[in-house]
Design a protein that fits this description.
It contains 15 helices and twelve strands. By secondary structure, the chain is α/β, with parallel strands linked by helices. It has two domains: 176 residues, Rossmann fold, CATH 3.40.50; 120 residues, CBS-domain. It is elongated and about 90 Å long.
C-alpha cells in the first residue's frame, strides 16, 4: 500500500496524540502515593536502586541516570543479574524502585520477596495497582495507561512514556526540594560545557607562559617587547621585587609608544598603565570574562591571596578551555 506524505504525517501525529492523551491520564493520577515516594527518596540514607525487565529496564536506566545527575545517588540493576549475585549491592539503607507495567514480572516478585525479608523500602512503578508487585511493595505508583499507542497493542509505548515522565517528575521534585542548584549540577557534569563554566578557575589555566608575562619597572622597552612576543597574551604586568603589580603594558600601549617615537631603551616605569584591573587567581573564569567585557580589555593580571602576581589570563586562553 502506498501512502501520501500527508497521510504519513497524520499517522505520526496520531501516535503522538495518543501518547499525549495517556500522559494526561498520568497527570491526573498524581496523589498521596507520589508524596510518600518523594518522602522515601528524600529520607534515603543509602542509594536508590532502579530495576526493570525489557523496555522497562531501558527506562529504568534513564531514571537512575537522571536521579544520579540531579543529586540522588542511584544506579540501575538488571533483575536477572540481581538474582545471580548483584543483590549483594543493595543495602539496608537503600530504596528500590521496581518497574513493571503488568506488575507480574517473576524476577521482580522474587526480588521483592527478598527485599521484604531484609526490610528494605520498595516502590513499584506499574500500570496495575492490583498486581502482585504493586500489592507487595511499600508504595505503588500508577503509570496510568489504558492502552498502548502501538496499533497492535503489544509494543510498550504509552506505558514506557508515562513511566519515563513519572521517573523524571520524581527526580526533579526531589531535586527541587533539596535545592539542588546549577553549581551542584556542575559537580556531577565536570566534563560538560556547564561544568567547565561553573568550576574552572583562573588558576587551573595558568601555565608557564602566563607566569612569565611580566617585567620589572627598570626593564627596557626592547626587552619588554621580547617578553610580549614570547608570551603572546597581549599584555604583560609590571611588578616590583615583591611581585606586586604596579601596572600593565599592552599591545595598544606598544603601538602608542612607537607612535610617540619612544626610544627602545626607555624604562617601562615611564610607560606603564598604573591602577590596573586585577583579578584573584581563585576566581572563576566566567568572572574574568565578565570583568574583561565590562572594562573593554582582553587580558588581565591574576594575583594570589597575598596580592602577588601569578600570571596573565586572557580571553583566548579561557575560550580555548571551552568557556564562553
Amino acid at each position: 500500500m502506498i501512502y501520501t506524505e500527508k497521510e504519513v504525517i497524520e499517522i505520526g501525529k496520531n501516535y503522538i496524540k495518543q501518547e499525549i492523551n495517556q500522559a494526561k491520564r498520568l497527570y491526573s493520577s498524581i496523589d498521596i502515593s507520589f508524596v510518600a515516594t518523594i518522602t522515601s527518596l528524600l529520607e534515603c540514607k543509602g542509594k536508590v536502586i532502579v530495576s526493570g525487565v525489557g523496555k522497562s529496564g531501558h527506562i529504568g536506566k534513564k531514571i537512575a541516570a537522571t536521579l544520579a545527575s540531579t543529586g540522588t545517588p542511584a544506579f540501575f540493576i538488571h533483575p536477572t543479574e540481581a538474582l545471580h549475585g548483584d543483590l549483594g549491592m543493595i543495602g539496608q539503607e537503600d530504596v528500590v524502585i521496581m518497574i513493571s507495567n503488568s506488575g507480574n514480572s517473576h524476577e521482580l516478585q522474587k526480588i521483592q520477596t527478598l527485599m521484604e525479608m531484609k526490610k528494605i523500602t520498595t516502590i513499584a512503578l506499574t500500570g496495575n495497582l492490583n498486581s502482585p508487585l504493586a500489592r507487595s511493595c511499600d508504595i505503588a505508583l500508577d503509570i496510568n495507561t489504558n492502552q498502548e499507542a502501538c496499533p497492535l497493542g503489544l509494543a510498550p509505548t504509552s506505558s514506557t512514556t508515562n513511566t519515563l515522565l513519572l521517573g523524571d517528575s520524581l527526580a526533579l521534585t526531589v531535586m527541587t526540594l533539596r535545592q539542588f542548584d546549577k553549581h551542584d549540577f556542575a559537580l556531577s557534569h565536570p566534563a560538560g560545557a556547564l561544568g567547565s563554566r561553573l568550576i574552572t578557575r583562573i588558576e587551573h589555566l595558568i601555565e608557564e607562559k602566563h607566569q612569565q608575562a611580566f617585567c620589572l619597572p627598570d626593564t627596557e622597552l626592547q626587552d619588554a617587547i621580547a617578553i610580549m612576543c614570547q608570551t603572546g597574551l597581549g599584555l604583560i604586568a609590571v611588578i616590583d621585587n615583591s611581585k606586586h603589580v604596579l601596572g600593565v603594558f599592552t599591545d595598544g600601549d606598544l603601538r602608542r609608544a612607537f607612535a610617540k617615537g619612544c626610544c627602545h631603551r626607555v624604562k617601562m616605569h615611564t610607560l606603564v598603565q598604573s591602577h590596573p584591573i586585577l583579578i584573584s587567581a581563585s576566581s572563576l573564569c566566567t568572572e574574568a570574562l565578565a570583568l574583561m567585557l565590562r572594562h573593554g580589555v582582553t587580558a588581565i593580571p591574576a594575583i594570589d591571596d597575598n596580592s602577588c602576581f601569578t600570571g596573565v589570563i586572557n580571553q583566548h586562553t579561557i575560550h580555548r578551555a571551552g568557556i564562553c
